[in-house]
Amino acid sequence: MQSGFCGLTWLVGSDPRCKREMSMVEEPESLSGGELNAAVTREVVRIHTASLGRGPRKSFSFYNGNVIVTVLHEGMSRAERTLVESGDAEGVRTVRKRMQAAMAGDLRESVEELTGREVVALMSDSHVDPDVAVEVFILDYPVA
C-alpha cells in the first residue's frame, strides 16, 4: 500500500489497517478552531439524524483544552413532542438516554478520527423544555 494512499484512507476511516500503519506515514494535518467545531458538529448531527430519524434545527460545537461540547437545539421528533405535551416527559428522557447510549460508539469514533485523540469519557443528556441535547467529549489530551 502506498503511504500517501494510506494517509488519505486513514482520514476518511475506510481502512482500519491504516491506523496501525500511521507511524510509517506522515501524520495528517489536524483540524483546529472553527474548522474542528464545524466538523464535529456535522458528525454529531449526522449520527443523531441517522439514529433518530431527524436532526436538530440548530447545533454548534466548541472546545477548550481536552473538552469538546456539542449543543443540539430542537431535535425531538413529533412523537416525542406529543408525549411531552401529554405529560410523559420522563418517558421521552428515558428513551433519549437509551438512544444516546446506542450512538456512543459512533460518536466516540467520529470525534477520535477528527481530533486524533482518544475520547476517554462521553456524557450525553437531553432536556425537554426547552428542547436541547448535549454531547460532552473528554479527550486524553488537549486539542492542538
- Low-pLDDT ranges: 1-28
Largest sheet: 4 strands, antiparallel
- Give the helices and strands as they follow along the chain: HHHEEHHEE
**Helix/strand/pairing category:** alpha+beta
Question: What's the average pLDDT?
Answer: 83
Summed up, the domain count is 2
CATH architecture field of the largest domain: 2-Layer Sandwich
Q: The CATH topology of the largest domain is what? A: Threonyl-tRNA Synthetase, Chain A, domain 2
The oligomeric status of these chains comes to: single chain
Distance between the termini: 29 Å
Structure description:
49% of the residues lie in helices and 22% in strands. It is of the alpha+beta class and 144 residues long. It folds into two domains: 1-29, no CATH class; 31-139, Threonyl-tRNA Synthetase, Chain A, domain 2 (2-Layer Sandwich), CATH 3.30.980.
